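Sequence only, no structure available. Ideas?
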Amino acid sequence: MGFQSIAIDGPAGAGKSTLARRLAGALGFLYVDTGAIYRTLGLFALRSGVDPADPAAMEALLPRISLRIDYGPDGGQHMFLGQEDVTQAIRLPEVSRASSAVSAIPAVRAYLLEMQRGLAGSRNVVMDGRDIGTVVLPQADVKVFLTASPEARAQRRYAELSARGTPQDYAAVLADMIERDRKDTTRAAAPLRQAEDAVLVDTTHLDLEESFHALLDAVKRELKA
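Reply:
I predicted one. Tokens follow.
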């Protein structure tokens, strides 16, 4: 029997990382946060003084990056640049913007594609991102498009940043969220979209616990189908 894969796509701030990680734990699967991989590339670009939106510069930078994914005893995903654990550093707003630009570059996506598929080919995974069900794992056993309104997502991101001690103005967070959506849905390389066979889970009016159970119920239904 082969390994099972669950693909969760959706816009920034939809709660994909939090909910997918919890879903993986409930199912006994490995959680793969592909957005963290792009964020790590974005951080490396910023630290290297490279414009993350410059395709030629980013392609030239790829051979220089020492990127590693590690999983702790609890299954938690950690991102490393060389020997440095950058799991927290990649969550800063400026890194989010850089990762959005980086992820629009075809050479970057091609560079990371086999890494992502390799993880799914060696174990049961819950993998989240922007194009998992459409590009990375088009044959996934279950595909979910997890979303919420821009206002709800901005409020959640605002609370998350405040809790981390890096507060931002809500209006700025919302504007950034809307711009991120525009870029993600209109980019030429693997734009954000709902796969035709994906289940829609909208958490606009749900709290965290309700959102998790909505996702878990949807996935269990699909696995039984």
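Residues 5-224 form a domain with the Rossmann fold fold (CATH 3.40.50.300).
Hope that gets you unstuck.
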